[in-house]
What does this fold into?
Amino acid sequence: MLSDQTENLLREILKQYQNSFSDKSYKEENDDQDILMDIFGITPNLKRENRQYWGRELGMCWQRLVTEVFRANCSNYKSPLKIESDELCDCIVGTDAIDTKYRIGSGDSGTLKKFKQYSRSLIDQGLQPVLIIVREDNLPAAVTACKKGGWRILQGNDSFEYIYEQSGFDLLTTFRSFSKMKEFYITR
It folds into this structure.
């Protein structure tokens, strides 16, 4: 069954990150929990030790999991659009150019300029830029800038609903079952 295949692929990705997280040691206040933190048993205190590390790694984990769900379940899946050395999105499903983010916490002008440039290029290609974000505590100025730049922004549960609508795969329920099993809890 396709759903079982997808779950097995997701398990493999989560296992790789579990091993990576267990081997990492770090040194920084946000008590908000999210579903990816739940899967790995990452506490806010642990995450504060090195927010940049956790944000980067959980972001890559999210990207890989989401693109794998789309690849496995969407007949209209396409690889990321690249122009020269720039990857404008993580994948394409139908006419949606999807980029994944764990959290948008940077409002620096370089990041915002990149989002605007990428959305223009995607729109020029006949695509709708869609940003799906795990967390809901994103920097409001960055979210506003992305929206003004042409991105459709989905955060938290809206991201999971979008994934389900596009793929027919209930990633949030799958994540919840993974977090209850504690199979991917990191050990230190």
In short: The first helix runs from residue 2 to 23.
